[in-house]
Design goal:
alpha/beta; Rossmann fold; six-stranded mixed sheet; three-stranded antiparallel sheet; 9 strands
Length: 254
């Protein structure tokens, strides 16, 4: 269980993003996180990952998670964050090397995830030689190799074409079903948020003081996207985000 209690955070003292904000995440839940630009979506991921510290309040991780979130929290970024001078194999192995894992074990784990994600045939290629979808799979393999209990994704599909994005979403769902990690996806795309998250956290314009949570039980099923419930959910999200977007342009919320 992750419990965010009375969270306060601001980059500028007079412009808080979060003020006495509370949010609970149960083990194995699949969340979408959406809201207007500048509302603090990525910041909230960084706070969960322990990359930045709150100004006030607490982020409590119970016995299902180590107090050291660096090694049991995986973060996948929009630009994938691959080292251009490393091959796909070495990029996947990076986190394991940082952890000081024994060399033979590193090779075993790395090869397992390259095969699991169907990219073992490009293991010796450099990022510049890979397609966008392949680069993303390398980034996902690198994250999964460290065995995270919490997987955070910051718009990882935004730069992909429509077919690759659909394939990547289905891959993420397969990973969730097979490994049942707790997963949080930040997205600007309303359809993506509605399809992915069994629960959806909608952030407001800052400061965020309380979570707006939408239950979305039909998510993740192929047939859901063509159902009336999916249409209703997308409309609900558009209305919520539109209401909280003052003078926002369409690109801020889609």
């Amino acid at each position: 269980m992750i419990k965010i209690k009375d969270l306060c955070f601001a980059y500028k003292k007079d412009c808080p993003l979060f003020l006495d904000f509370n949010w609970d995440i149960a083990p194995g839940e699949r969340w979408s996180l959406i809201g207007p630009s500048g509302c603090g979506k990525t910041t909230l991921l960084y706070l969960l990952a322990g990359l930045i510290a709150p100004a006030g309040g607490k982020i409590n991780i119970n016995d299902d998670y180590s107090n050291d979130r660096r090694f049991l929290t995986g973060l996948i970024l929009q630009d994938f964050g691959l080292l251009p001078w490393n091959t796909a194999f070495d990029n996947v192995a990076l986190g394991l090397k940082i952890q000081g894992i024994e060399k033979n074990k590193i090779a075993q784990i790395t090869l397992h995830w390259l095969k699991e994600l169907g990219i073992e045939n490009v293991s010796e290629h450099y990022p510049a030689e890979l397609s966008g979808g392949q680069q993303q799979r390398v980034a996902i393999a690198r994250t999964l190799a460290i065995g995270p209990s919490l997987l955070l994704m910051d718009e990882p599909f935004a730069s992909l074409d429509a077919l690759t994005r659909e394939d990547s979403l289905n891959l993420a769902l397969k990973i969730w079903r097979n490994h049942f990690s707790t997963m949080v996806l930040v997205t600007h795309n309303i359809d993506e948020a509605a399809f992915w998250g069994s629960r959806i956290l909608v952030l407001d314009r800052a400061p965020n003081t309380s979570p707006h949570i939408i239950e979305n039980p039909g998510s993740g099923q192929p047939e859901y996207i063509s159902s009336p419930d999916f249409t209703i959910r997308c409309k609900q999200l558009r209305e919520l985000i539109g209401r909280n977007t003052q003078n926002g342009s369409p690109k801020d919320i889609l």
